């Protein structure tokens, strides 16, 4: 695969920096689509007629869906798509046994090229690292510790206490603080949403967001294909936020985000909420039980408030605040600076899944984030390892850090960490960027960050 640098927009003739993305995604440039539209379009592009693809084999998992140990949602959502990336990152322990189970549902081989940028070679960085961490994860497990469960539940308890008190006292400051706690609830729930089915995933549904839609946009799209044209967490914000280095960005798109980003942070959860309930009303989306959790919070505010106006005010204040802090952290914590790969930039010649993931993420060097599990839980910490092995709980990633660093050194790779402030500035710089960068140019950008990712 030959790396490419594009001088203009990505389009049907030049769909991606990666030759593995050999066609432009269906309806990618149709703005303001739902994440459900994205998975529908993905099924069209993968063209599997309701079956599942792993590498170059086609499977019919229909009878296995309800028996899937991780929960049925994972297979229901991914029906009719190539799940190679999700399969590889989800099965860390006993992969041979998993593959034997998969073989029971084999239908046929396929010679159609995968519609994906990445490879999983046995002697490549990712597969070697994955093999090396297996004995460690067999010993410590991949699931959450009691400590991180208590942390998560305590944040939720704090949110409810502050929301009740803020509503009862009609205190705007307490309501804002409740919103900050709710943002931490949503970010913490992100960790649990990646794991096998568990009820803490639904903490995210206390916001105007949706854990179900999050699994589609974040786990099946962003985590599998970060910063590529297959990443819906880029396309869903276009043309307002243009993270890819397009040559046709106008002045507002390049310089406006320094102001209007903060407005977007406030309203993004709300826009998703309104879109979701509009689709439900129109019969385009099913009503799921967890969608009602946010209404429970509203009912609580209305009951405790001195009147309907104060109850509604408390609910809106808390929800808008949570949206602001959640998206402030999400957009500025890991993925968007000029030194990080964005589709259109030159891609590495050997598109190993693990190394390409690391090309699209940078760790933060702040000591508070690096040394505190609580802070990591509530600010998307340990992001590099999390992208490599998202189904390993944040509380267990520390056990594989040394092996990760040794393997990086063996492959001659280095990904310097950046401070949170550098990430914040870098996000605005990336939104202004309108020309692609070569690997050498991105490394030159990185040279200013002397802190090594740990």
Would you mind describing this structure in some detail?
The chain is mainly α and 454 residues long. The protein has 20 helices and three strands. It has a three-stranded antiparallel β-sheet. The longest helix has 25 residues, at 257-281. The protein starts with 34 loop residues before the first helix and ends in an 8-residue tail after the last helix. The mean pLDDT is 94.
Rg estimate, integer Å: 22 Å
Helix content: 40-55%
Segments where pLDDT lies below 50 for 5+ residues? none
Distance between the termini: 30 Å
Structural class given helices, strands, pairing? mainly alpha
H/E element string? HEEHHHEHHHHHHHHHHHHHHHH
Annotation, overall tally of beta strands:
3
**Overall pLDDT score:** 94
- Strands in their spatial order, largest beta sheet: 1-2-3
Q: Main beta sheet: strand number and arrangement?
A: 3 strands, antiparallel
The portion of residues forming beta strands comes to under 5%
- Shape assignment: globular
Number of separate helices: 20
